[in-house]
Amino acid sequence: MSAVDAILAAGLRKRYGRGARAVEALRGVSLQVRPGEIYGLLGRNGAGKTTLIKILLDIVRADAGEGRILDQPSGRPQARRPVGYLPEDHRFPEYQTGESALRLHGAMAGVASATLRRRVPELLELVGLTAAAGRKVRGYSKGMKQRLGLAQALVGDPRILFLDEPTDGVDPVGRAEIRALLERLKQQDRTIFLNSHLLSEVERVCDRVGILEGGLLVREGTLDALTRAGNVFRIETAPPPTPELLEQLRALVVAVEAFPGGVEVSVEREPDVDRVVDLLRARGVGIRGLAGKRLSLEEVFLQTLEAGA
């Protein structure tokens, strides 16, 4: 293992049940997360995402393989000390206030009372709950409870955060605030392992993404590498190419398609796009923009699942 790994999963396997009804939740999952990285884990319901997180936190025991946190086996208590965790569908005692709930979780995490007196108000302000600090949790909306859960994950000032659906039930304004918070935490060199079904949220904040399907890590990479659509380029032009010019372009490329304000071309090799630009300019067409085509993360996700079907 490299000394820079914040999180390591090596050949993790987990089966629930026995016999014909047994379910293989994980079938040999291996991945690495670097310090200061935001890693997003995607997968449909039942793909094994939550099981993987729970194994890395020693909440569930793997049948085979190894999990490590900052080079410590995940089963050791010292491996969990620098970790904060927001579970999916978390619950707080509804008779508690937001402030008392944070104090309770801080005390259970071993945070000193003097530190909590300072840190709890800071965290409530950070997640936008200062005005509701003294209200009972039973009166919180789902989005408020989710933000309180995020504050709970931060109460021990962790170096690593595991967040399972952190924006579930949060309105668009709240999601934007949580994204900004995650970016600030990353700037502080914290590592964030993010499990979410909101692909647009993952696309906006994550450095790398892994896709789980059927208990296997079927695809992984940076956002740039995953969303690049091969040698496909969108060229914005003025004026748009004429039908005659489009016919000439077809002789140079694999495929060509006009769109309002330009043309999209697919080429065998990246340098071939230069020939397209040269022809357009030679025919008096101005180039206003040229960029490699990008897929959305949702398109990448669906294509990956379809390829494995």
CATH superfamily of the largest domain: P-loop containing nucleotide triphosphate hydrolases
- The number of distinct helices, counting runs of at least 4 residues, comes to 11
Tell me the span between the first and last alpha carbons: 33 Å
**Sequence stretches where pLDDT stays below 50 over 5 or more residues:** none
Q: Remind me, CATH topology of the largest domain?
A: Rossmann fold
Helical/strand content category: alpha/beta
Overall, the morphology is elongated
Task: Estimate percent helicity.
Answer: 25-40%
Q: What strand order characterises the main sheet?
A: 6-7-8-3-9-10
What number of domains?
Answer: 2
What is the CA-based Rg, rounded? 24 Å
Q: How many β-strand runs?
A: 14
- Average pLDDT taken over every residue: 91
CATH class of the largest domain: Alpha Beta
Q: Biggest β-sheet: count, sense, barrel?
A: 6 strands, mixed
Give the topology string: H per helix, E per strand.
EEEHEEHEHHHEHEHEEHEHEEHEH
CATH architecture of the largest domain: 3-Layer(aba) Sandwich
Percent of sequence in beta strands? 25-35%
